[in-house]
């Protein structure tokens, strides 16, 4: 008896050691990817909001397009105060959370199935699947989903202990882990639902529900306040569009196509090591682009796996039903309510961050479908098959496929070019004198899409917080602005030049008084928003009225030699100028769009490496 226990103990030690080695190896592997990433898109908005606001209820509890995530907002608030764009810290947090998620899943598998070699299969799936890789390359997704991937297995493990021992402290632990998940991710309220299915199917059935009623009352006491807060904030939080949320379901066709694509093009292929091919979104992110033929092959393999498990394993059908139900309610419904009409069914259907956190549940379901739960009576519908070694080629094929897919994802610049732009821009602001006037244009789309983030995609929001001194930001040039600068495509500051139509200066300047002086344009100007740059030589300060077609703009002009800028919305074939007050003498006139000048030394001279 002692000898047998010793053998089991040593075998359990070997399985535990193997699991820890697997977690460590995947951390080293994934760090190679994570260390090449940088902040992107939403990250700049979230960090800017954190710097703008105190750590208050209003700041933390704002729902961002359907996501209640005060924990993630707290992390962004802290990140802004720990170096603004401290990517080294972000990488360290990412890998630490990833390590904790792996350990949490290993704990759940050991608690649920016992410390047996079979648990290394679902663990290996969760560590290798490309389903989680795009989420690891996006800091906002990391801060939201990785804490949930820790909370879910920890809560379920505590619940399993509660069912088996009846000790209420385990129910308290499960509730606490669920609350932690809710603080970060909107899918966390489904944790008690998963616990309910586990209990009915594998942990005592209806009898356990009745016996442990206090635990279910506790879980309900956690869910109800969360639901009240969530729906109150959902309908009162002001979005970037300055509107509150109004739920709108997509058409049935769009909804079905999006859900089907998310299932067959994202969840199933990545559960088998796909998607094998990626569709780049800019340089630092990509969507799954599973080839149609491999989507069908993946679907057939998945159907075969489900059929085999249901044929041999008692209640395997319930495990797959639990996964499908979670997918529909937790993965599909939020997308239907939030973004499918904006993104379209194809874009949303191949977006892996919508299912990245589901990888943990897929791992648990693989275990439930093929491995007996610890202490489970009559786990097999038929005599247990002797197919132990069949897992070896299956696991090797999955591992090779996953490594291939992840390597294909990593075969792009990732955050290198965005980091170069941001660090170059920060260096530029640090080098120019305090008070320098900088035209506040939108950053390039590779940094943040203005169509999505509006004012938070402007340089003042993205780069302004990196400046060590005061910068004078202006969204439009108006009046005699002294030596304005503008960012070039590499993130350097250059003098502003007006690109468009030029009316050259004559041998001497043109006097302008109270009567309009007409300047014929060398080419017609189409209606639109323009900036008129007027060079002048004045004996005294004055005011100039500038007319383009029917549109007019009035701007001051200083004394002596200088230039003033008149923003105007119009078009036509002639420009008219008159002076209000003292007369003026006008030289070169330019009409067009502010752009970085080719002349003049850029600051810094060369872009910084990313």
From TrEMBL:
Report whether Lyase shows up as a keyword of the record: no
Q: Which residues cross the membrane?
A: 12-29, 88-106, 118-140, 170-186, 192-209, 216-235, 293-312, 318-340, 352-370, 390-410
Q: Work out whether the entry's keyword set contains RNA-binding.
A: no
What keywords tag this UniProt record? Membrane, Transmembrane, Transmembrane helix
Q: What is this protein called?
A: Transmembrane protein
